[in-house]
């Protein structure tokens, strides 16, 4: 192994974060998505860190990336550095128990657009001293790095330093506009009894870069690839609008689809998994009175409201 001439005090902290992210995610693509960076940016950061260390940290293997011996030696010290930095930040954040100030929330585009506005209006009426910053994004903001104080997500966070509360489950369904359905050709009785023929009857609206829908169909025993979807976009708000405009059939939360009387549910017999709703914050931020107030308010609101 090369002799290390590495001074962490002279190194950009973001390089250490990127290194640990790639280790934890197992690939540059997943790490870049988790950090909200482009893959070329993340690759440059890893290359810069390797240059400052004087040795390669990863090697490519069939299933992704594997740590080199040098990388293996640096993983735990890098994690210790991150833990210490987080503890310092959290300690500073929790010193002020004053209710006045800002709470930063992250949620998906759909939750931010259709769920939170009504709840945040009620929060503002009860606690006008609290300011809210809302990150409307499907990317997973890193609570451990203070990119957000509270997250509303449809997946459970894996980090032990986070408090995660499973609030409820939202059923989903496959919907289309009635005008689109009215224009479809009538199938024979044989075709109606053939699930594959029924699925191929429709123009499907799906995701572009994300494989979420493909994985979901395959988990249900339906082998499809990206070409199965005739329209692809990773923005769920856009997909929702295309369903309402009659472009084809798409997957949507049932409470949202039922708001539009012109939408009809199709392939009802096709069982789809519900979306779990998780509310998450950092353990140390949970001791902040302001963050705790918003966390508890959102928990109650998401449980009590029937959207």
UniProtKB/TrEMBL annotation:
The lineage of its organism: Bacteria, Pseudomonadati, Pseudomonadota, Betaproteobacteria, Burkholderiales. It comes from Undibacterium pigrum. GO terms for molecular function: DNA-binding transcription factor activity; sequence-specific DNA binding. It comes from the Bacteria. GO terms for biological process: DNA-templated transcription. Keywords: DNA-binding, Transcription, Transcription regulation. The keyword DNA-binding applies. InterPro entries: LysR-type_TF_proteobact-type, LysR_HTH_N, LysR_subst-bd, WH-like_DNA-bd_sf, WH_DNA-bd_sf. This is LysR family transcriptional regulator. Residues 11-68 form the HTH lysR-type domain. Belongs to the LysR transcriptional regulatory family.
């Amino acid at each position: 192994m090369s002799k290390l001439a590495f001074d962490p005090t002279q190194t950009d902290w973001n390089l250490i974060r990127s290194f640990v992210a790639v280790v934890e995610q197992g690939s540059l693509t997943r790490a870049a998505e988790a950090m909200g960076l482009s893959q070329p940016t993340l690759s440059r950061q890893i290359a810069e860190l390797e240059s400052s260390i004087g040795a390669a940290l990863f090697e490519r293997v069939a299933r992704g990336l594997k740590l080199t011996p040098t990388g293996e030696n640096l993983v735990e010290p890098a994690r210790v550095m991150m833990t210490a930095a987080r503890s310092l930040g959290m300690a500073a954040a929790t010193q002020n128990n004053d209710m006045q100030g800002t709470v930063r929330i992250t949620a998906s585009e759909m939750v931010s657009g259709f769920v939170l506005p009504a709840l945040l209006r009620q929060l503002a009426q009860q606690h006008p001293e609290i300011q809210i910053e809302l990150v409307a994004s499907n990317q997973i903001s890193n609570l451990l790095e203070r990119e957000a104080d509270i997250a509303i997500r449809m997946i459970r966070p894996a980090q032990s330093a986070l408090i995660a509360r499973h609030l409820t489950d939202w059923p989903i369904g496959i919907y289309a506009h009635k005008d689109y359905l009215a224009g479809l050709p009538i199938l024979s009785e044989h075709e109606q009894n053939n699930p594959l023929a029924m699925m191929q009857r429709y123009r499907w609206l799906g995701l572009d870069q994300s494989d979420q829908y493909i994985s979901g169909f395959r988990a249900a025993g339906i082998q499809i690839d990206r070409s199965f979807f005739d329209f692809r976009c990773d923005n769920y708000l856009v997909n929702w609008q295309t369903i309402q405009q009659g472009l084809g059939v798409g997957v949507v939360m049932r409470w949202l689809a039922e708001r539009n009387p012109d939408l009809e549910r199709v392939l009802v017999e096709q069982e789809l998994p519900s979306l779990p709703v998780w509310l998450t914050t950092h353990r140390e931020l949970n001791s902040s009175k302001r963050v705790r107030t918003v966390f508890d308010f959102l928990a109650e609101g998401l449980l009590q409201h029937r959207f």
